[in-house]
Amino acid sequence: MQQKKLNVAVMADGWYPLVGGRDNGIHYLMMELYKHPEIENLFLYVPGFENYKEIDARMPYKVIRCKSVKLKHLIYKPIIDKKSESLVREQPIDVIHCHTEFTVLNFARKLAKERGIPLVLTAHQNYKEEVLNDCWHIKPLANIIIKGILKNIVKCDTLTVVTHAQRERVKGWGITRRIDVAPNGTALTYPEKPEERIAEISAKYGFAPEDNVLFFVGRMAAMKNPDLLLDAAKILKDKGFSFKMVLAGKGGHLNHIQNRIINENLERNVIAPGFVSDEDVFSLYLRADLFVFPSVSDACGLVVLDASVLRTPSMVAEGEPASEGMVNGENGFYLPLNANIWAEKIIELFKDKNKLKQVGLKASQTLVYTWRDSADAYIKLYREAIEGLAKNTLS
Fold first, then answer.
1. CA–CA distance, 126 with 131 (Å, rounded to integer)
2. Are 136 and 59 in a shared domain?
3. How far apart are CA 81 and CA 107, in angstroms?
4. 294, 225 contact by CB (below 8 A)
5. pLDDT by residue (tens digit) across 80-94?
6. How confident is the model at residue 394 (pLDDT cuts 50, 70, 90)?
7. φ, ψ for residue 144, nearest 5 deg
8. At what angle do helices 302-309 and 353-366 cross, to 10 degrees?
9. In this predicted model, what pLDDT tens digit does every residue of 338-378 receive, in sequence order?
10. Cβ contacts of residue 93 below 8 Å, gap of 6+?
11. Into how many domains does the chain fold?
12. Are residues 12 and 92 in the same domain?
């Protein structure tokens, strides 16, 4: 018997024009769900800000925006206004998939309860560290907020994370309920003629063929640890190691990083250009000898998956979810968060670039997961949540 197609509402507290791992992940998952034969209707509910109308018009799937108020740089608080709430209530919905533990989740819980439908929640971030950072390290205030987050997490019908490491992190918060893993994917594929892309980006950034190139891309925030990369860059420079490093991405920490580059005389080795187009990011992955990503805030590290599919080996923080699936030294590298250790390892690795390339090739064979795989996993979880709620209602 053919299963009924699903009507799915996806919700989040932030999305484009912000560009981060979670924002990209939501979009790529939406694209695969939109094309999926088991989906009947699909829409995304997120706050509106800046120039969002042009972005929404380019999307094949429906986007409904609520109002928002700007709190600080690139941080907006959603406001569930009557107009957007009315539009949401007009939509057929069998399951709600929420990517936030804050304002929009409260609306999602209320709507799910009213309609008798399940709520699936994906926990993306290292909330304890991020909330503490956003609360200026005032622990009593942070603890109040974290307590509220944990309450919201346990009240959803299905709780998911994107890596096994994130599951262990969430368990460490005191969550004892079942946690399902539905991995993120990558939308990239290896190009037929990579040498053309490499030549173009090398000309744009002034890379010589023999240059040792290190690359980072992500939201420029303290918890992404770009400062560790600058500390390591200074050590590399002092040791006479020849290299070029590109730190790509916007964010509240960008001015600080750019000022450090100037004040520490790193301009000849390091560039932090801010926003970099998707096309150039793709080409920078291809040209880079090593992708460096010391973040402690990511639940997955989509950028590591992207680097892997383009055969670029990654160096990440030991014990963080970005190291998911890595065998140290075989398909990637993970190290303690210590600039001296990172600098020494970089020097060691660049003594044998052929081995680096082999590690990158192994990463492309072992660390890559597609967004269609992710969509299939979520649809399975949606159906299980619907069936589980139906059984509980009947019992």
1. 9
2. yes
3. 11
4. yes
5. 999 999 999 999 999
6. very low
7. -65, -45
8. 110
9. 999 999 999 999 999 999 999 999 999 999 999 999 999 99
10. 7, 8, 9, 111, 115, 117
11. 2
12. yes
Domain co-membership, 148 together with 133: yes
Residues spanned by the domain of 172: 6-185+371-394
CB atoms within 10 A of CB 277: 9
39, 376 in Cβ contact below 8 A? Answer: no
- Residue 268 burial (C-beta neighbours within 10 Å; 0-12, 13-18, 19+): exposed
- For the record, the structure tokens of 100 come out as 């936030």
Tokens of 251: 């964010």
Packing angle of the helix pair 139-154, 103-115 (nearest 10 deg): 20
* Single-letter code of the amino acid located at 294: P
**Mean predicted lDDT score pLDDT of the chain:** 92
Q: E strands within the chain? A: 6-11, 39-47, 62-72, 75-79, 95-98, 119-122, 158-161, 180-181, 213-217, 244-248, 270-274, 290-293, 314-317, 333-335
Six-digit token string for 316: 């990440």
Query: Tens digits of per-residue pLDDT, 270-279?
Result: 999 999 999 9
Pair 155, 200 in one domain: no
CA distance 13 to 28: 17
Helices (H) and strands (E) in the chain, counts: 15, 14
pTM: 0.86
Q: What is the pLDDT of residue 395?
A: 38
> 148 with 179, same domain?
yes
Tell me what percent of the residues of the chain surpass a pLDDT of 70.
Answer: 94
Are 229 and 252 in a shared domain?
yes
The token duo for 65 is: 């925006």
Cα distances (angstroms) measured from residue 357 to each of 140, 279, 318 = 48, 22, 21
Using only the alpha carbons of the chain, give its radius of gyration: 22
At residue 72 the predicted structure's pLDDT band, cuts being 50, 70 and 90, is: low
Check whether 302 has a pLDDT greater than 60. yes
Question: Quick check: is 1 in a domain?
Answer: no
Dihedral, CA atoms, 299, 28, 251, 266, nearest 10 degrees?
A: 80
Tell whether the model's pLDDT for residue 133 goes beyond 70: no
